[in-house]
Amino acid sequence: MKNYKRYLVTSALPYANGPIHIGHLAGVYIPSDIYVRYLRLKKRDVIWVCGSDEHGVPITLKAKKENISPQEVVDKFHYLNKKSFEDFGISFDIYSRTSNKIHYETASEIFKTINKKNGFEIKTTEQYYDEELNQFLADRYITGTCPHCGNEKAYGDQCEKCGTSLSPTELINPESTISGFKPVLKSTTHWYLPLDKSEEFLREWILEENKNWKTNVYGQCKSWLDTGLKPRAVSRDLDWGVPVPAKNADGKVLYVWFDAPIGYISATKEHTKDWEKYWKSEDTKLVHFIGKDNIVFHCIIFPAILKAEGSYILPDNVPANEFLNLENNKISTSRNWAVWLHEYLKDFENKQDLLRYVLTAFAPETKDNDFTWKDFQTKNNNELVAVLGNFVNRALVLTNKYFKGIVPESTNLLDEDKAILDEINIIKNKVESSIENYRFREALNETMGIARLGNKYLAETEPWKLFKTDIERVKSILYISLQITASLSIMIEPFLPFTAIKLRKFLQINKIEWDNIGEEELIHTGHKISKPSLLFSKIEDSDIQIQIDKLLKTKKDNLKKEQSLVAVKDNINFDDFQKIDIRIAKIIKAEKVAKTKKLLKLIVDTGINQRTIVSGIAEFYKSEEIIGKQVCVLVNLEARKIRGIESEGMILMAKNSDNTLSFISPDSITDNGSQIS
User: Fold this and answer.
1) For residues 246 and 59, is the Cβ–Cβ distance under 8 A?
2) pLDDT tier at 566 (50, 70, 90 boundaries)?
3) Which of 16, 185, 368, 560 would bridge 74 by S-S if both were Cys, CB 3.0 to 4.6 A apart?
4) Measured at the alpha carbon of residue 237, what is the angle toward residues 233 and 239, in degrees to the nearest 5?
5) How far is C-alpha 10 from the chain's CA centre?
6) Predicted confidence (pLDDT) per residue in 295-328, tens digit
7) Count of CB atoms within 10 A of residue 405's CB?
8) What is the CATH number of the domain that holds 662?
């Protein structure tokens, strides 16, 4: 393992068009805060940079919608989000923004350096243009049917169902997600980063040199590389962003995916004049903390940019997390299905560490995970209150009760007492290993092991029973208990920084050095501690019900909104209606269509004949569970080929508010071929 002199840690720049929610905190900012706080406690030379990502189409759209300028939008959310991070103890060394002058200069310099080396390709291509809004569309603002798996909501750059990299022109039936209109192709000229020319370098660097990366990160990178990289535009037609510093570039800005990660560099420049030793020295360890939706940008595209520029180091690791869901549903900002940080503190005042603890315990480190309010309550009551809070309270209360808050003298420590301190050192080493390998859930659990150890020690030694018969033994027990508490006051700091400060105030001590954890005399005989209050308080069922009721109201509001948006189709005349022939049919055979996720090939008995129908219901029904089911079939629909299969009709389905599908079936067994009229 390389011996690094310094660390540069970055966290994904949150987009400045909305507030921060628990998914952001769990996926990126708490893990990076734990890591950086640990490095600081270990006396490592570390800088942690972050800031607001303030360019791109969503900003301009929000500005238009609210009839304000893009700058007003980003100002509002930059300061709101900055405060949310501060409120939760997220301890960036700098929280900058990509609308700053230093960022414009830095992004422009890097573009110009690459451009001088002929590192870009200039192409005139046809791109989708929204005539309703008079603007070109970013790939993410075009959806359509994936040509590979049939997903009808694939994006213009990637299908999230099958993971295939796409270009917008590959989509079937493309649509502007902004206006809903079908876009047209229009010529435009842009600068492209030739990622295909970086493929060999990226393959060796990622697939050979970084096999220790997290499985989800390594796997996604391999998938992209195996599919084959293509040139990617670094500019776009827009009036909000860093202007392209080149000739004939009027009305063009740097694409947000190009300029945003450069924000890490400009933020470091803003923070220190010695920025180059952090970005250009091989003895610096660069670590990017991100969510899984940013893997390709930080592991493939940004390294390709840095390599093309030529003077920057590449990341040592990119420990990306998966997504956090809320009450078994995907967090959605547009549907208000989220727990917003600034709102959480109104309901749970001064309970930042409680949320930090729960989000670390349920961090989506290797797979998507779920946050529920019941789990939140359980973690607080059964662990923070019953384990950590209980041990600290017992140790301090007993010291105040028996020795007036004076740390007693340990005249005769037994082997079992010394073994406790040895165990703390073993736990400390495990925590260090876990944190340095980005396993923060594991590190938190190990740290809580010290509190469990303390509770077990007190339960087995029972000093309250010995006070009248063996005062010297009670002194030793409480002396050891206070050493455990002192070790805890620093061990918990990366995870629970507010609690660590509170605990040290109880003990009336300054911050202990990390390397001294587990030592016998962290807190000395004769030292006076204060009278403690409770570190944590129970969360009642009524508190949780308030939060659940909020989400239920959100769900109902979303349902009403969606129902109101479903427009009734235009009237048809009676003659047209009579042309429709819908009959009852029985599914007699069903099987998945190869290389698709949505399609089932069905053989149905219509009473007239048996026919094949291809239906996009595989996400909702397994083939074996629908055989024998009676359904409604449009039998006189013109046949068409779907994935090379002749489909002769359509199964009628009801689309629910959550986009799931349900069969329309008779309420009792009916003859196949019965006509619906």
Assistant:
1) no
2) low
3) 16
4) 130
5) 15
6) 999 999 999 999 999 999 999 999 999 999 999 9
7) 16
8) 2.40.50.140
